[in-house]
Design goal:
The protein has one domain. Helix content is about 25%, strand content about 20%. It is built from five helices and six strands, in the order βαααββαβββα. Strand 4 and strand 5 form a beta hairpin. The chain is globular. The termini are far apart. About 25% of the residues are buried.
Length: about 210
């Protein structure tokens, strides 16, 4: 099991989204901060993915047919942490985010309260699953020569804290970059833990059978 505490600073995040919206509006049209946030995360505020999906099957889709990030940007959080292709099928994890702290009253609230989420995930191999998703995808270094495959995750990528950019495809050709200096998700440490299997727990919790003397 992997456990992380991730502090969230909504005001800084929404300020970045407004800047991104202003940058891409000339090319994409009517883009507000909500859509800009969806471009960064890969999902809209209601949870729907940017990538089209079959009717009635909101999770039955792949990014394989969108290699240049025209529908869902290549650096979108959910695209990097769940690539949905055959090459990463063995790296999938069972994850959950648990909010803590008071909800921010408004998007621009800066009240000093600590808020965020506890990230928990389970996998059979931390090295082959969690560390691969975090290291190979989320922490990718921005490479201008390979703009399709090398983007840092704007939400949890460590490379996003060091003067990187987030690129949004421009329908007219090329892409539009917005400076990315992630100050809206702040990690406060984490743990690698061993979680016993259900079989192991049953063995620990089942009283030993003691043979009665004949």
């Amino acid at each position: 099991m992997v456990w992380l505490q991730l502090e969230q600073r909504p005001a800084a995040f929404w300020a970045m989204c407004r800047e991104l919206a202003a940058n891409v509006r000339p090319a994409l049209g009517d883009v507000d901060e909500d859509l800009a946030a969806a471009l960064v995360v890969g999902r809209r505020l209601d949870g729907d993915a940017l990538e089209p999906f079959p009717d009635g099957q909101p999770e039955d889709f792949s990014y394989f047919e969108d290699p240049f990030g025209e529908k869902c940007p290549a650096g979108a959080h959910v695209r990097l942490t769940n690539p949905r292709d055959f090459q990463t099928a063995d790296a999938m994890i069972l994850r959950r985010g648990i909010p803590y702290g008071p909800p921010a009253p408004t998007r621009d609230t800066v009240d000093g309260a600590e808020r965020g989420l506890f990230f928990v995930c389970y996998q059979s191999s931390i090295e082959k699953q969690y560390e691969r998703l975090q290291g190979e995808f989320a922490n990718a270094k921005y490479d201008k020569k390979q703009p399709v495959s090398r983007f840092p995750d704007a939400i949890i990528g460590q490379a996003g804290r060091d003067s990187s950019v987030i690129e949004i495809p421009d329908p007219r050709g090329g892409s539009i970059g917005t400076p990315l200096n992630n100050g809206w998700v702040v990690p406060h440490g984490g743990l690698y833990l061993f979680a016993p299997s259900m079989t192991g727990l049953r063995m620990l919790c089942t009283p030993a059978v003691v043979a009665k003397p004949a």
